[in-house]
Amino acid sequence: MSITRARFAELVGLAEPQISLLSRRVEDMGDYTIEHLRFRLGEEEVRGILTRPTREGGRRPAILYGHSHGGGYAIGARELLDGREYLLDPLGPVFARAGYVTLCIDMPIFGQRASVSESFAAKALLWHGKSLFGQMLSDHAAALTYLADRGDVDASRIGAFGISMGCALSYWLAALDPRIAAVAHLCCFADFRTMIELGAHDGHGIYLTVPGLLKETDCGGIAALVAPRPQLVCIGEADNLTPPEAVARAWSELAPAYANNPGMLEKISEPDVGHRETERMREAVLAFFGRHLAAID
Predict the structure, then answer these.
(1) Residue 38's closest CA among 146, 135, 136?
(2) Gap between the Cα atoms of 80 and 111, Å rounded
(3) Model pTM above 0.85
(4) Which residues in the chain come in under a pLDDT of 70?
(5) What are phi and psi of 106, to 5 degrees?
């Protein structure tokens, strides 16, 4: 099922809020630097965490990092520095040492924004025909605007990355926003229609429920909007959140979009691997961004 970018934006209710920097605290970690940021995001004050190489290097490539869910409501953007149990290690320092400026902000209901429950926030929006994920995507787009406007970032070389919820944040925003030059995503690419048929959809949080979406498209059609920009899809074949049948259906709708640019679409599929990052995925992600964003420090 194909859909236009404009119609997809309408369905998710994309409405990027204004963003402005309120404060910045710099922490020197030797070979990389952490910036602890406070933003005014619409009417709300929001935390952001940024990592970058310490050494001056002009305008660098950048990565917009979408943090995961995993029930870790108190974690949010700290994932960039602290990691998660399904990551090999925290990626903020890894990306900084590889030459990237990387930004993550707290999504609604996570980190320092965890003032209400996911159910509370999602239900209120769904009653109005909106979605919590639409709000997250809108805020993620604002973070992208800040990142693109930084003096140390080359706005033509911004990638997006995430695992689990961050996976969906990354490729859905890449589908909506051509400012994202390349996207690599882990462990959340699967067809929702098939998930429902299999009875596997309830493993995903209510945040991801977008009213009316499946009447017009599904994850393969969404990811197809990224084409012809580079896209790396990583999945574990034993991941209950991405059953093989659902991945196959989504891939069958994505792959034709790259028929004229097959080298721009890559997939890492790991047998007997659940909902986690692997060494092979990590190597593929770093190589992918290295090729398409050309990080040189």
Answers:
(1) 146
(2) 12
(3) yes
(4) 1, 295-297
(5) -65, 125
From the number of C-beta atoms within 10 Å of its C-beta (0-12, 13-18, 19+), residue 245 rates as middle
CA triplet 6, 12, 14: central angle to 5 degrees?
70
- The dihedral built from the CA positions of residue 83, 89, 93 and 99, taken in this order, carries a sign that is negative
Alpha carbon distance 270, 158 (integer Å): 27
Angle between helices 165-176 and 5-12 (to 10 degrees): 130
Residue 233: both structure tokens together: 């899809």
Of the candidates 2, 56, 1, 15, the one whose C-alpha atom is nearest the C-alpha of residue 177 is 15
Neighbours of 55 (CB within 10 A): 10
Q: Which residues contact 237 (CB under 8 A, 6 or more apart)?
A: 244, 247, 269, 270, 271, 272, 273
Q: What is the model's pLDDT at position 1?
A: 63
Residue that has been written with the tokens 């119609």 in this structure:
7
Tokens of 158: 């911004």
Buried b / exposed e over 74-106, threshold 16 CB at 10 Å, is ebbbbbbbebbebbeebbbbbbbebbbbbbbbb
Helices then strands, counting H and E runs in the chain, come out as 10, 9
Q: Where on the phi/psi map is residue 63: left (φ > 0), alpha (ψ -120 to 50), or beta?
A: beta
Q: Which helix (H) or strand (E) holds 263?
A: none
Rg (CA), the chain: 18
83: left (phi over 0), alpha (psi -120 to 50) or beta: left
